[in-house]
Design a protein that fits this description.
single chain, 278 residues, alpha+beta, Helix Hairpins, SH3 type barrels, Alpha-Beta Plaits, five-stranded antiparallel beta sheet, three-stranded antiparallel beta sheet, 8 strands
Length: 278
């Protein structure tokens, strides 16, 4: 850089010092306001019973980035930069960026669709083609989940949207199927009565549809008895574990066996010595 060029830069900075300082102040204030607005929106919406918590992260992120964009444009205008030409350049650059970041834009579009159609919501347990966990937050770019074993999952919105979603929490009730095998020589009627009594003793089992017991299959070593009941979704796992334990105790107490796979090994006797000699 030559000395005249350096002097010109110094003169320009000196002449526009106030405008530059004002622009920097606008940027700083805009950053602070964007953070404040994002936190405020989260607190207000999370505390309101009328607002679905699912849309809270999306609105907070939109406010954050929206204020930042406005602050940048105001700062540039304050520094004497022609914002109309910048907008035109940004428009052309935006097209190129959009083509280069198709995946990112698809995540934004998928996030909007997840919020709009609401196949999932915060607090619900879902399985999206192997991505399973309780939904913590649907953000602008990705969905955060917490797996049943406490693992943190960060999944792009497009991954969730572009696959089949199984929502285990959306309905108030779920069907519970418990299959237990008994021996072929055991009393099927007694096993059926024990399973029906177990269902009747559980107050959380729904009366409609009524509990039923079927012989679901004739296995290679057991007669499979199927207990089918409907239970509240929130109590599904606790009832399943309780039924499994009680069925074992009741069957043992009444002499009903629960067969397990066995392997019979037959050893052929050794050949006679005379035949071996031949």
């Amino acid at each position: 850089m030559t000395e005249p060029q350096f002097n010109n830069i110094i003169l320009w900075l000196t002449a526009n010092a106030i405008a530059i300082a004002t622009g920097l102040v606008i940027l700083i204030v805009g950053w602070i306001l964007s953070r404040f607005a994002s936190r405020t929106i989260r607190k207000l919406l999370q505390g309101s019973p009328r607002i679905d918590t699912t849309i809270t992260p999306l609105l907070a992120d939109t406010a954050h980035y929206g204020i930042l964009v406005v602050a940048v444009m105001m700062a540039l205008a304050q520094m004497g930069v022609q914002t109309t030409s910048i907008i035109a350049v940004l428009g052309a650059a935006g097209l190129a960026i959009a083509l280069a970041l198709q995946g990112t834009l698809s995540n934004i579009a998928a996030g909007v669709m997840l919020i709009w159609l609401r196949p999932i919501a915060a607090g619900e347990y879902i399985d999206a083609n192997g991505t399973a966990g309780t939904v913590v937050e649907i953000g602008l770019f990705a969905t955060r989940l917490k797996a049943a074993d406490g693992i943190y999952i960060f999944a792009p919105n497009s991954v969730i949207w572009n696959t089949r979603i199984s929502n285990y929490s959306r309905e108030d009730s779920r069907r519970l199927d418990l299959t237990i095998g008994i021996g072929y020589s055991d009393d099927m009627s007694l096993a059926r009565d024990l399973l029906m009594k177990m269902a009747a003793d559980e107050s959380r089992v729904l009366a409609d549809p009524a509990p039923v017991v079927y012989v679901s299959a004739l296995g290679s070593s057991s007669v499979d008895m199927l207990l089918r009941v409907w239970v509240p979704t929130a109590d599904y796992w606790s009832i399943l574990f309780a039924f499994t334990e009680r069925a074992k105790r009741d069957f043992d107490a009444n002499g009903i066996t629960i067969p397990f796979n066995q392997l019979d090994v037959h050893l052929d006797p050794p050949a006679e010595a005379s035949k071996a000699a031949q």
